[in-house]
Every structure is written in C-alpha cells, then in structure tokens.
Amino acid sequence: MLFVGSGRITLTSLVIIFSNSLTRVVHSCAQVISARQALERCATAYLEQLEKVKLTAQQREDDLLRDHYSVCEDFTARLQQANALIGQYRTLVANMGHAYASGIEKFESDVSQILVQHKNLRQTNIKSRRICCSGQVVSPK
Length: 141
Prior knowledge:
With 141 residues, the chain is mainly alpha-helical.
C-alpha cells in the first residue's frame, strides 16, 4: 500500500487510474488521427477544386495562386501539429511504466496538457474545414 498525503492509494486504485488515463490517451490519439485524416481529405478536395477552375485574367490567377500557397502552408502547419501531437501520444504511452514509478500526478498533468492541445487542434480543424470544404474557392484572409 502506498501512502500519498493523508490517504492511502492501493495498487488496484493506481491500476484503475492508470487504465482510465490510458483509455483517455488512446481515445484522444484516435481523434487526432481522425482530424489529421480529415485535414488531408479537405486539402485534397481543395486542390482538386483549384485544378477545375480556369482563370483567364492573369491578375486573378496570381491572386488564386498566392491564396492557394497560403492555404497549403496553413494545412501543412496543421498536419505538422497533428503529427507532433501523435508523437507526444506515442511517447506518453511508451513512458507509462515510468509514469508509474514517478507518480500518477505527473502523468495526469501530461495527459491534461496534451488534451488541451488536442482541443485547440480540433477547433483549428473546424475553422480549416470552413475555409476549404465550403464548395467555393476562398481566401483565408
């Protein structure tokens, strides 16, 4: 039996806490992967849409190319964020044994930080979908 503060934590309660944390991490990781795939589909649809658009005025073409480049950079940054977050999840899962030794409190703090980052990325994903999946070419300005 471990003594933490004034209470007791049994091995069973640690396992339950650890299991619940792992379940949240796995669920969040799946959501990040899903969001990343949605961003990739959205980017592909946007690129296909741009290919269908025929521009006659050189200035309009230059504007669209500039907008396209900006949106692609934005999507690339979002995909990099998603990949970094997935890497954090993988590291977190790999270090769960260490989390046992160093204490559940630190582990839950790490999980909380990653969940906040996941929430922010999900909100950004929703905004990106509005830009690229609205069925029209738009500028992200």
